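Budget justification, computational time. The allocation requested in the original proposal was used primarily to generate structure tokens for proteins on the priority list. As evidence of use, we reproduce two of the resulting records. The first is shown immediately below.
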Amino acid sequence: MRYMSADDAMKLIRSGDTICCQGSTSVPVMLQEALTRRADELRDVKIVSGFNVTTGPAPFCKPEYKDSFIVNSIFLCADQRKHVAAGYGSMVPAFLGEVPYLFRSGLLPIDVAFINCSLPDENGYCSFGISADISVAAVECARVVIAQVNKSIPYLYGKCMIHESQITAAVECDIPPVAMEFGPPTEIEAAIGGFIANEIPDGATLQIGVGGIPNAILNGIKHHQHLGLHTEAMTDGVVRLMEEGVIDNTLKKNHTGVSVASLALGSKHMYEFLDHNRDVEFYDVAYTNDPFRIRENPRVCAINSAIEVDLTGQVCADSIGDMIFSSVGGQHDFMYGGSLSEGGKTFIALPSRTLKGKNKIVAHLAPGAGVVTTRFQTQYVATEYGIVYLRNKNLAERAKALISIAHPDDREELEKAACERFGYSFLRLK
């Protein structure tokens, strides 16, 4: 391993390079900070990253660096969101599962990879730890690989390894991944979670995200049997079910007996649980998010969230109007793969209103809003007022169903909009 200081490693960066930074709760912030110390010497360095959880804004996201560093986010998070909203960077629209192909094909060339990896094992292999997602492909394609070799990164199995000989420059560090703790679900989250939990059968293969609603769902299935896990993001909630034997992966057809994920974010306990755990394997998102691999498992239950849903079932999950909030991520990959699975079910979970009282079941998506899941793919939609199934319904029937789970104070307005839009086909349903 060629160890050096972070500042010395940054001498390998050239103006015009494209850098891919590892993400999840394992962002190589030490390397990013060192990069910004060369801001006066560099121009037009493009920075690509996926799903990031950090304790503050990315070091390169400052107006004074606008000519040095250009943000091209794959999945916009809080560390870069304000910078992009201010016009200093942008987002590359792409299904998360196809990002490795963009790298490997040269459509989105990567010159440098910043990673935050484990210590090497006895054979010289470091693990990408809790963020295989887009990092595996970035490392394959990069001219230069700069690694934070980190004592605090868990060693994970699967296809998420890099040999020390592939690392151009190594920087020693001992920085724990960001710990994420979630409190108990709110009353609204618990209600939504309960409706979805009731639809999940024993033997289901789960894809589930992060936050209060997913935690409420996981609480609701703690007495299920023989669940499997094939997901994008692993969290504390699924780890609890693994520890309790609820998730045992015995009925999965793909990776029987093993939980599969691409990234992880959660507590220190979760990271310790994952370290050298043979019951868990991590792969890049081209593998985990392949809809035709997802469908191989039976009874896939894919649960995702939304910013708003219109009366026809169109799901916006990446923007608030024309302001980019995140990206499509893996929602489309799992909604499609889940719908193809034998006995599979897909769910969109959202509260009926925002914290500011704005309705989330809407007559029309906000101007500029992006459609992440099309009306042709939407199956179940759940709010705290119930759960409805849209797949076999016409547009007027969908509107009626969605209005029934909207906030009661919004239903009259939505009914008027539905009458104007769908005419007698809606009126005859009342």
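The second record produced under the same allocation is shown here.
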Amino acid sequence: MVSIPNMRYNQLGKGGPFVSELGLGTMTFGAETEEAEAHRQLDVFVAAGGTFVDTADVYADGESESIVGRWLASRKPEDIVLATKARFRPPSGSSGASRRGIVKALDGSLQRLGVEAIDVFYVHGWDPDAALLDTLATLDAAVAAGKVHNIGWSNTTGWQLQQIVDTAHYAGLTQPVVFQPQYNLLDRVIEWELLPLCLEQGLAVCPWSPLGGGWLTGKYRRDTEPTGATRLGEDPTRGVEAYDKRNIERVWRIIDAIQSIADESGAWMGEVALRWLLARPGVTSVLLGARTVEQLHQSLAAADLELTTDQLARLTTVSAPGVPDYPYGMLEKACGMTVWQELGTANPEDR
């Protein structure tokens, strides 16, 4: 185990806790990673200066939380900021963001984790069948009862997140301090609406899938469908990182640029991708996911990597998704202001 001397710590939004810039995601625990290996990952993470541990009630149907809970009980670590989520448990559990769903989910998470309070409790996604005011009032009551310290949200559109923030504000209820989206060099869609909104409202951004499901580590090859013991090797059609969806020229240009900068820096490709993401406006902590301790060690090294302004600009340019004609292209011409300027990249070449 090795300490990371350059690990930085940032505050989650307005009034939230300070957390390590590299967080540990635990979606693999109990599914792809057995308990002993999961505990070793947690030990390595803490030894490296990590403080932010993220899980969810739906990960391995609750087993991820139980594994983390048993580690907390055996190690009794100080300074851990613990996050979990509710929304997507099966109907036999506590699905949804209704009052009943949130209460049952929170009580279940507290029991599995073996703690009296959750530091950051996320709603894992928008629920069209739940009354938003009821959801927010239930979360506010959990904060008042001392069961939750801070609330957050994950996986919404821009208008949904704005409605969450506004409803909480006008009802005088606990405001979210953090938003957790997918964000990486391959998927920058949140830059159009969600990221500017988070900057405007003072919400921390804690991305999941920072390595694009492994694509940004160089593990996949052009025109060679993955096989073997990897996520896409076991299921090439898996989710947003499916091989056929991402086996396109833009993706390979981005991967080539990462490889070039990694060679220049003497770094692993994943470190380069993580350091670019950590340099983006509003990004407070990036969630690492790993099957093994060795993979985690590789990602943690990003805390010690520094990229030049030129290297960051090259990555930003090659990964630019392009400007849709409407409404962004039209507004760019009419108003002379782009979302990229709002994000602090006013140079048009950065697009």
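A brief technical remark on that second record: Residues 9-224+267-305 form a domain with the TIM Barrel fold (CATH 3.20.20.100).
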